Amino acid sequence: MKVFNAFTAKSEWERPHLTHPGWPEPTPRVTLPMGGKLRLRPLKRSDFRAWSDLRMRDEEHLRPVEPTVSGTWSESHSRLSWWETASYLLKSARQGALLPMVIELDGRFVGQLTIGNIQHGGISDAWIGYWVYSGVTGRGVASAACALGVDHAFRRTGLHRLTATYLPSNPASGRVLAHSGFRDEGYLLRNLHINGRWMDHHFVALLADEYPTTAVDRLILAGRLRP
Predict the structure, then answer these.
(1) pTM of the predicted protein model
(2) What is the pLDDT of residues 13-62, one digit of tens each?
(3) How many domains does the chain have?
(4) Angstrom distance (rounded) from CA 159 to CA 26
(5) Exposed, middle or buried, 91 (CB in 10 Å: 0-12/13-18/19+)?
(6) Residue 147 near residue 125 (C-beta atoms within 8 A)
(7) Which domain holds residue 73?
(8) Contact 54, 102 (CB under 8 A)
């Protein structure tokens, strides 16, 4: 059986950044099982309204699983806070330190995916993290976005290794990562300050040469994406 490879669709790519391969360019689009086209594309300053609106609506879902914010949730999602956050992310992207991507479903902002602490050379690794608006959960959005991020990091940015963490109280996030091939490597005690206290995390990882196929292709074979 011939496996559809979404990463043959190079017409959707821009030319890679000279000093930061994989930036600024979107990923190819993939089709979710229930319909809908999903891709990752570079974050823009003009994303403020969509970012703020979704995260303000989703405070009860996001606050328990994300790093502790200073001040109130509203203050941390103000235009000033966005300007500071976006400026840092885009500056770091230009320097090659991270990839701040928007998860886009049928052209709508529905979350973010970040590949951070990018290191090339003898280490050649980074971490991957994401959040998805609760209004689109249950459609495979997180799994598709994670697979696109993994393939972009390995095939476009040229990394050798990706790591991720998830809370023991959030096994759904662990399943999303497992769909892309991440495997357990350890358990980190009081690793991140989440919602006001230090929290333990599962630690998982994935190598670029661990599978002969892309993460997107593996989701297609598992029926989690349409070919």
Answers:
(1) 0.92
(2) 445 576 788 999 999 999 999 999 999 999 999 999 999 999 999 999 99
(3) 1
(4) 17
(5) exposed
(6) no
(7) 6-221
(8) no
